[in-house]
Predict the structure.
Amino acid sequence: MLELISVIRRCGKAVPLNIQKIRTVCEWACKGLNCSPLELEGSLTARLKDGITTKEIQDNLINCALEKCDLSNADWRFVAGRLHIWGYNQDVIASRGYGYESEDFNTFVYQAIGGVHRGKYSDVIWKTYDHDDLAEAQSWIKPEWDYDYDYAGAALLTNRYLQKDELIQEMYLITCLLIASVEKSSDRLAYAKQFYEKVAQRKIGLATPILANLRAPDGNGTSCFIHTIEDNLDSIFDEIKNAAKISKNGGGIGTNLSKIRATGSSVMGKPNAIGGVIPWVKILNDTAIAVNQSGIVTGK
């Protein structure tokens, strides 16, 4: 019997199952889509058990939606996307204590100015914008823009782009404030708002190195870097080191290897002494694996 089922909340407290709350979530997730909230709720009911956690309920709802997705009705992938981001936002709120709709959301501005987030975000933010600027920028946030992703996009966004305990619109807002930071002070906020509205609604797509890394300390404001390796050991290893540093700070790299001698070429008067470009490509590839664009460094 459903009324005998207890649910373990994110805080660890056990409470009676509230089927109306699940029904409300199902109706919200299916709103405006060619999907039945009653069908989604019905699929979940068979998976409910005593002691189930809210996280398990969320994961089961997502799986139910994905299982219903096929060529005849692809809208279920958007239901799953909404549920994934909704669950992610609930986890953030449980961890840090506030979300978009909380009265404490102003804490985001105050903490940014007060320095609690120093080390998390680029210090360009508090060097460029004052409290009033950030308060205005925060007013642009539209939480509903979180829920316009299918499941694949939602999972990629939360797993790859967001920092710990960061909401999606915060990511977009901070990124766009940084992009606009080079503008004249009289125009800066206007440009930042335009950037935010276009990026958050996905009318403009930002390259991964910018969206994932720009707001971090020393994050790159450029997506790709091109460098050329000359045909000597000093140049080869200098540029491999440069590639590692660029990748560590989130940059993408293109390397011109055309100047390296071909296989079988002579060196220091010895014929057939060169192995060609492939050995150096392997070293560059291993460097990119060891120092990736997320800033993960093997053996700092």
Summary: The CA atoms of residues 81 and 200 lie 16 Å apart. The radius of gyration is 25 Å.
